[in-house]
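Researcher: Going back to the complex we discussed earlier. I've cleaned up the inputs and rechecked each line, so this should be the final set. Can you rerun the prediction on the complete assembly and write out the structure?
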Amino acid sequence: MKRISTPLAGGALVVAVSVALTACGGGTSSQKGGSASGSFDKNATVGIGSVYEPQNLDNTGGGGQGVTEALNGNVYEGLFKLTDNGKVEKQLAQSYTVSPDGLTYTFKLRGGVKFHSGKALDSADVKYSIEKVTGPTSQSARKSSLTVVKSIDTPDASTVKVTLSSKSISFIYNLSYVWIINAQAKNLKTSEDGTGPYKLDKWTRGSALSLDRFAGYWGDPATNKEVVFHYYKDATALNNALLTNAVDVVTSEQSPDALAQFKSNPAYKVNSGSSTTKLLLAFNDKVKPFDNVKVRKAVTSAIDNKKLLESIWGGYGKLIGSMVPPTDPWYEDLTHVNPYDPALAKKELAEAGYPKGFDFTLDTPNYDPHPTAATFIKSQLAKVGINVKINVITPDQWYTKVYQNHDFSATLQEHVNDRDIVWYGNPDFYWGYNNKQVTQWVTQAEQSDTTDQQTALLKKVNQRIAEDAASDWLYLYPQIVVASSKLSGYPLNGLNSQFYAYDIKKS
Amino acid sequence: MTVYVLRRLAFLAASLLLASVVLFLLLRLLPGDPANALTSVGASPEQLAAARHQIGSDKPLPEQFLTWLHDLATFDLGNSFISTLPVGPEIATRIEVTGPLTLMAFVLALVIAVPVGFLAAHRANTWYGLILSGVSQLGIAVPVFWVGMILITVFSLHLGVLPAGGFPQDGWSDPAGALRSLALPVITVALVMSASLIRYVRSATLDVLGSDYLRTARALGSSFGGAIRRHGLRNGAVPVVAVLGIELASTLLGAVVVETVFALPGLGSMLSQAVAQHDYPTIQGVLFVTTLAVLVIGFLADLAQRLIDPRLRSTLTGGKP
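Model: Rerun complete. Updated structure for the full complex:
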């Protein structure tokens, strides 16, 4: 399954320039799943069921989404961490300052931090870790967002000085994706050396990955002794595992049909969090007829997204009307901009010069939910005279035909990342949206002095792309975590596939 | 016999070489670029070119082929494009699941099929003979995943006596756990496999029961059981052994389905994932190993047939017995 997971360039941080912040403790403001239980088993083993198996254990070496889910925050930590509700907090950074020109960041490292191998954390490890992400062999999806890093100096063992080539307000946020790794560690594809609350016990390819509580952890120890990620390729097998207590929690339920059996059973809790995955009907804004704003608005207004979401996900998921999910700081509900209104759609079509509609081909990836959505769109558009030809393609074909060659009229695709609205500022991106004002706003947002400035600019971008119906944002996926009711403290939103397991309590 | 074995071995080697050529070419003719799998979505043409260079897919086909053959000769199955980890050791750990699964299912299928097939033939005209053949016909029509799902529903979800899937992380160092995990998959495969085996055993038995030599043996005073033991088993076994070879091989290949249903980390699930990811070295490695296994099984089945039936040794091979 190929989901669009784009490197991000936008960003926010909870800090004013030139202000040094001191550590605010290990407290987390995240909302947590499960009922608050008084007593829990400190020596519990928590079974986690997932469909995202790591390819290898190196997140700069093609480990994929699964390695983030299992190891990010659990085994490896960053200078900063992204909480489950989208906030950036200090982790291995004790404090930091930013120079008045916004180009030099000086970080003080937290003391007493040890790697699982026993070595103490120092500034050379941080330098090594950042360079590992930006290095020539790195396959990290985050690589391009850190190209602003010009140089890294280590004046002493607990200080790191990073110089940027241009201002980047997202820099701190982007650092939350950089794992701090022991610079001397070897074989990172099959073993690890991080600073997190768990150390890797065993990884059995195709089957499971287990993590044990790390006795030398600098912060609050994990509230369970061991977590085991069990991997399934088949959603039914995964649900069966939960039903037979082979796992205690499923990180991301992919099969809405299976939810009824858990909802009606008091032994389980079905949690609906907020995802960052958007299903897009992406127009090729450069070719006829979608180069015409009226046509795009007409198509958007002709499709009843609410009904589509209902038919695919039942009562779950959300309509957002643009590219920004609620966990991004610049979120606004823009569903009113292009409301579902077939009469309006017909009027706009007539104004655009297509009173009788037109024909177009919809390139549709061959896996769920795209074929279902395509059929729905076809029947909706038929009502306003637009005739859709559905062309089902494989993820590889999609990648080559649509993404690389821009050879399409319209396509369906899911975009998974948070803060990815910035792609509308790039006229060369596959959907070809080209608005100089938007490009300028996106660039300015990244150069902002404060997050307020950045937020204000990206809100403008959000509003403008909605008015231009740059794409039709069909809906935001739900993030459904199903867990045994014995469990509490698990993350609900799973932003960017991360799944912090150290606060999970099992009674 | 020695000549025959040598000839058969040479044939095996030639088949393997041919299979490797076909395997290699087929994979290269598939649409899609494996370099996509290595790069993130925003990759530039330069990054894609670098990825192709890294995995060697930018080299001419003959050169890629020779590299592969050379690696095979040195027992190196290469590194996965996706995980970049060596394929060989992973196949070895996956065989620890698929191997026992296949063998146990095979033995269980035999245990079910031989007596049932014999009874179905011996009592062909009674009501339960008819039911036995009917049930086996039905069994052939039923897909593996369906049997698996029924068994999971009954034994895991309702009765809760056996796990619904997965394999212990400690593998066979936890023998009880491993056996419990394999119980339902083994039964699933064995049920489906025995259905078709029953038919072969039944028709082989009918053949034997209607044969002149059996009638002669009975006429010479042998009891029914004695005649079957002395003459029937050996004659009936020849066609059945041939089918057994084919069945064992197809079970190995059918592991893809049962391993997905039961979430087992075996060769089958490894293969299906590798196919989805265009991971050529892994696909090649798994298919090569399974091809080798299938050819060896065929070879052993042939050999077994000849050991059972001396006539085959002289007539079919032309060599001296």
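Model: Worth noting: The longest helix of chain A spans residues 451-467.
Researcher: Good, that matches what I expected from the previous run.
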